[in-house]
Amino acid sequence: MILAVSKGQPAAAIAAAHRAGIVDFGENYVDEALQKIAALGEHDLHWHFIGRIQSNKTRPIAENFDWVHTVDRNRIAERLNAQRPPHAAPLNVLIQINLAHEPQKGGIGEDALATLAGAIDSLPRLRLRGLMTMPPAGLSDELLREHFTRIARLAAQHATPQRPLDFLSMGMSGDFETAIACGSTCVRIGTAIFGERKPRTD
Ligand SMILES: *Cc1c(COP(=O)(O)O)cnc(C)c1O
Predict the structure, then answer these.
(1) Nearest CA to ligand 1 atom 5
(2) Are 68 and 53 in contact (CB under 8 A)?
(3) Hey, which residues does 126 pair with through a beta bridge?
(4) Burial degree of 184 (CB within 10 A; 0-12, 13-18, 19+)
(5) Residue 202 has what pLDDT?
(6) pTM above 0.90, yes or no
(7) Neighbours of 46 (CB within 10 A)
(8) C-alpha 79 to ligand 1 mean position (Å)
(9) Reduced to 3 states, what is the DSSP secondary structure of residue 156?
């Protein structure tokens, strides 16, 4: 799937992309997203949260999004599970993997995957669908391939018959071709769809 990353873009740009056939939109900042979700209520859109999750923001995420790509700790998973409204479908979640242990990014190392996946399996209001990754900046194409391939392999290794972990959120405007070649099922595309975005001022 193509996930159109609409952070920094106005609701009108999202409506225009929807007219062009895109239904999945990704947002990084809760307050900015809530305004657009409210403004676009007439459109039948699927909202994906792809930013870092602060534990005091889990309730609006659980209430307003269909997918969360950036789950990286049990406490966040438990809060999303408890706060998902009873009338809504289970929240689709991905575990973010940070292979290089970059401190400025969220995500867990591969050693922690089995434990977190097992914990999410026991939460009935969450549905663990796969993995998400953001590779370090500036990798050669060869190292990028290695990174994405490791994520695909990890997902296959940790899949079970009950939950196949077959959803791989990898690739952005600058590297989506490589990600697709390595098995991505969801490319997160911002600037290549919308053009440059408004820089954040806070
Ligand atoms: C902003 C962002 C994107 C989109 O980046 P582009 O380079 O504009 O395509 C994708 N994924 C995440 C997690 C982002 O924060």
Answers:
(1) 190
(2) yes
(3) 91
(4) buried
(5) 65
(6) yes
(7) 15
(8) 25
(9) helix
